[in-house]
Amino acid sequence: MKAVTYDKESELAYIRLLPPNMRGNLQPEALKVNDCILLDIGLDGKIAGFECFGETALLCSPFAGTSRIYVKDADGYHFRVRQHASVRSNYTVYGVTFCFSDARYQEFAGFDLDETMDHSAFLQRLTEK
After folding, report:
1. Which domain holds residue 43?
2. InterPro entries in the record, alphabetically (predicted)?
3. What per-residue confidence (pLDDT) applies to 90?
4. Domains contained in the chain, number
């Protein structure tokens, strides 16, 4: 399973956070601090995935087709668009902390998943070894 997809024609990236069988009916919701990220919220109140537009999509595009995007440590699962991206601000919603390299929440750096998003078997398959 691919964790990130990228459509070159529409210049949109999609990052999957839940396995397909847990997605169900989804409600779109814009991320309040950044209008380049559109969340897909499941009926259970968890983010199933999110769509990225503009510069955020371009930052995610190199990961398209990649099945192992996460790094796991004692704090959970982490994804960064740049290996050493500094985080100057973050915004947490539905158990996902979106990280940004600037104070205005515009330069997407990646995200962290807390324990409420722990679907360990699924996430482990998407984790670097």
Report:
1. 4-125
2. DUF2283, UCP021389
3. 95
4. 1
